[in-house]
Amino acid sequence: MIPLSTAMRPSTLDDFCGQQQFMYEGSLLYNAIKNKKLESAVFFGPSGTGKTSLARIIAKEMDADFHELNASVDGIKELKAIIDRADNPFLGLKGTTPYVYIDEIHRWNKLQQDTMLRCIEEGTIRVICSTTENPYFAVNNAVLSRIRAIYEFLPLGTDDVVEILKRALSDKERGVGKLNITASDNLLEFIADHCRGDARSALDTLGFICENIPMNSEITPEQVGEALQTPMNFFDRKEDRYNLLSALQKSIRGSDPNAAVHYTAKLIDGGADVMTIGRRLMVIASEDVGMAYPTAITIVTSCVQAANMVGLPEARIMLGQAAVLLASCPKSNTAITAIDEALSDVKTRRIDDVPLHLKDAHYGGAKDRGIGIDYKYPHDFGGFVDQQYLPDDLYREGRKYYRPGENGKEGAFKRYLESIWKE
Question: Which CATH number does the domain housing residue 36 bear?
């Protein structure tokens, strides 16, 4: 039985889902593929985000021979065979430059990677390398210097994964449409959330469920919970999920550690994954604690990272620690109000240019334009000197975004700012 994730691989650019940061109609990458002008590239990002699928689509759009290698099992021998065929006009009869897709390129050592240098530089083959690791560390500099295009694939958004799952449920040729199985949007969202943007994992979970329930039936929360091996106590309705996250944030904002740890426990018991809870805790650390205890975000981020590393059930300890810490901290929302007010001004009103003395003056001719002349270097004045930083119109009206409070550490910041600016 072919895995559903394999059967549902997109075959055209229009079918490709996600990665809107670089793949959309009219984007440079989209146009390069359509115009058959895409050269070699590096794709990096987590599993299940579309790297292999896009590489195969590219080869199809280019009408080119496509060779797929996996660096965990294939090596120089297999690559040289492809290069020799491309070099030999009697063997490579198609007349187009072949594409070689090398999955998990980080598994090749320097010597193996350097085998590609000549053929990439001379255009004998085009290479698409994919890796789950940072290519600036995992791929040789000599290879990267010959491959200009480096694309970072991000985990797919929940909406993208849900759309992919819906396609699989309705597709009678490649998907499970012939089984006439239905699922609520809430359950599909739960599968997508649990799989953390990995479309392969989400599709194979759906395929496992559909293969083992009767035709013409509706998927139940219990079946999803069994397939994912996670409880569904509080996640069979979408609003329950957000009600619990809202209650957690409001309890922390209200400085009630008992309620905070209670709702954290409910989320864990209800099947929330570590990052769903962790993301909300990190937001709270800046939105509701903020400058009253600035190191909260560092501590909470460490707790979330540790929780993600160890996984449940041990992760409950770090998540509980973060929730109790945040609830027990002094509170301040000045960070969010400051940035939101500044963004509102930037988006809704015309603002004067950066003052001349603050502009970059590290080039010839800057002083002739009056740039940087009157800038005072604060360190030459003991660490602070009174001078204008805001654009002229905001400075004249005395615009303030950050208005510090007295809670926790923020009181000390307030007194310091008042003392130097003599407010």
Answer: 3.40.50.300
Domain count, the chain: 4
Reduce the DSSP state of residue 168 to 3 states and report it: helix
Tell me the residue range of the domain where 306 lies. 238-328
> 3-state class of 342 per DSSP?
helix
If one counts every other C-beta atom within 10 angstroms of the C-beta of residue 61, the result is 16
CA separation for the pair 62, 410 (Å, rounded):
59
> Which CATH number fits the domain that encloses residue 395?
1.10.3710.10
Pure H helices in 35-140: 51-61, 76-87, 110-114, 117-122, 135-138
pLDDT, tens digit, 9 for 90 and up, residues 55-108: 989 888 888 788 889 988 888 888 888 888 877 655 444 557 888 899 999 999
Task: Indicate if 223 and 171 belong to the same structural domain.
Answer: yes
Strands 149-152 and 126-131: unpaired
Q: How far is CA 127 from the centre of its chain?
A: 25
Distances (CA, A) of 51 to 18, 32, 349: 11, 17, 42
Record the tokens describing residue 295, joined without a space.
């190191």
